[in-house]
Recover the amino acids of this structure.
């Protein structure tokens, strides 16, 4: 594997309330120079939760996605607040989004969103041993909460309103992990 | 399910060579008003390919990801050129990135990247019946091509240099699809 490219220069070229674009001049080990652009996130990271109830069903939310201008079914997720651990963030977001906390939270994998263009990562957490507890979230309207049998995520993935790549990845990883735990 | 929010107003608030940020004022059906920001992509879409060779191995690439400032293993992917079909784009990108074309290309799923904040989608294509053909790409350095047994993607997903959520999702979906075809 080649040596990592040298970062010759970088600076912020555009920003808004949510997005910051950085330009990076890179020199590869073969001498080739290129200018890249990437999104750099603010904040302390993000978590996505596969919460599994006692009936071996996954907890899903249906919410409006402004990016795709449509309602979409996906996994609960959210930003990690400063000073929070990943497990604390996962538990808080679960209480806000599906009205349950979890007594057992396991870190599965840190995923990247788009390694070429975005610095952002998201940590996938499996949440088990759920108990009802609701925290106030900041959603503009109540989220619809759905459940889906973990054993049948293939049919969930076929739904045209279930499209988020990260959520599909998290579900498959969590299913494999869960089945191994059960053995 | 609630009626979709009304888009009261939208405009471009930041842009660079690669990124365009749009601000959207939305009114939800309960009267709640919010301002969202999303990334709107240029171009004609993108494809991600699960190319499977005669040994039932998946073709992977190792490339530098400027977003995460590190080398990463992932699936071949790329932008659809104007006027190209998804299959044509998939075949061209395979020739550029792994040095193979495919006689059989099947569309599996359109995925979203981040439904809340990005309009972008990517189409997952399974490519079979591969034949060697190299096209010149625009990479700054040659990509390293790897193969991995389709039957063992769990161990690939455990690698810390294999992190892209969309690629993990595409691999699991393609494996399930392939196993069903084989029956």
């Amino acid at each position: 594997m080649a040596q990592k490219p040298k970062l010759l220069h970088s600076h912020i070229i555009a920003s808004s309330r949510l997005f910051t674009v950085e330009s990076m001049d890179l020199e590869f080990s073969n001498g080739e120079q290129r200018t890249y652009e990437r999104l750099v996130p603010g904040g302390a990271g993000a978590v996505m939760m596969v919460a599994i109830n006692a009936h071996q069903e996954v907890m899903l939310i249906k919410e409006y996605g402004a990016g795709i201008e449509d309602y979409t079914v996906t996994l609960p997720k959210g930003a990690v607040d400063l000073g929070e651990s990943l497990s604390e963030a996962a538990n808080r977001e679960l209480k806000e989004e599906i009205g349950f906390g979890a007594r057992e939270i396991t870190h599965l994998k840190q995923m990247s969103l788009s390694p070429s263009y975005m610095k952002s990562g998201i940590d996938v957490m499996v949440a088990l041993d759920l108990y009802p507890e609701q925290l106030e979230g900041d959603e503009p309207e109540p989220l619809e909460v759905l459940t889906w049998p973990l054993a049948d995520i293939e049919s969930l993935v076929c739904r045209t309103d279930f499209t988020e790549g990260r959520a599909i990845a998290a579900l498959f990883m969590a299913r494999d992990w869960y089945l191994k735990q059960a053995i």
In short: Chain B touches chain A through 66 residues (CB under 8 Å).
